[in-house]
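Example 4.3 (complexes with small molecules)
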Amino acid sequence: MKAAVLCGEKDIKVQNIPEPVCEPHGIIIKVKLCGVCGSDLHVYKKDEGKGTIFGHEFSGDIVEVGSGVQGITPGMRVTAVGFSPCGKCYWCQQGKSHRCSDMALLGYQLPGAMAEYVHVPFAALGRNVFPLPEELTYEDGASVEPLSISYFSVNRAQPKENEIVAVIGLGVIGLYSIQVLKSMGVAKIFASGRRPSRLAAAKPCGADLVIDAAKEDAAKMIMEETGNLGVNTVIECAGKQETFDQSVAIARGGGKIMLVGVYEEPLTWDPISVLSKNLTLVGCLGGNFPAAIELLKSGKAKTKDMITHVFPLDDAAKAFQAQLTDPTAIKVMIKP
Ligand SMILES: [Zn+2]
Ligand SMILES: [Zn+2]
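Answer. The structure with zinc ion bound is encoded below.
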């Protein structure tokens, strides 16, 4: 089968590789669509991870089911998460392999869905394999993972309806976070980002004020808008020194900063401003797939304007370039 393989720094090639073999507790999915993720780009940009087949945001049809798998049948339209615990660490020894400290992830250590077929080990219905309701398209299905991250992170903040929330960084996680905040009835949502297409998408997603951080001082504007009080919660989706500093500057006393974006570099920070305002910094790594599917089913979240580019698998290299540099790109997907 064809698969997009990382062959070196920013070098994706489509190669012919053997089709995956279904393990007794696994399933094989014929991939319909697969998103290029910001986390993929972190690896793509470095000369590490040669041989990686990316792809953890996908949808497709089940074509094979292992003998030990229950409740899953060929033909099901699904999205899924794949991981394989190490079996050796403290948590694995305790029988809590979901907490494994050395988990191999599908799309990184395990071959991902930028291929015609993907093998999902340890398939369990409702735990890591999720059928798509008929209202959901394959585009929706391949968007469940990023939306699930936004839902998880926003829900962890538990924003109240009368609060003000700022979303910093308008990649797809930031934009979906705005949609989730809107669905929760949050009174005022500020959004700050850089790429024009993403700034344009923020309002339709539900943002009340959109700030072009390339031209304006986002922190200054947000402080002015809030009478110098700042916001109750910041959803920090950019993962940069500058945006971390902004988040600390705009969070009001007792406020929360949800750290969602992946930082490529370590931070330098002054804890004084965090402790003097009694801020809470919350790390967010996780997703809620059922909640994301429900949001899409109810129409409260929409993927249509988020998916700006779809490339055939043969053009996977172009897809990565577009996700990295194209100013019009929000979410780029690959169609095997
Ligand atoms: Zn992702
Ligand atoms: Zn383990």
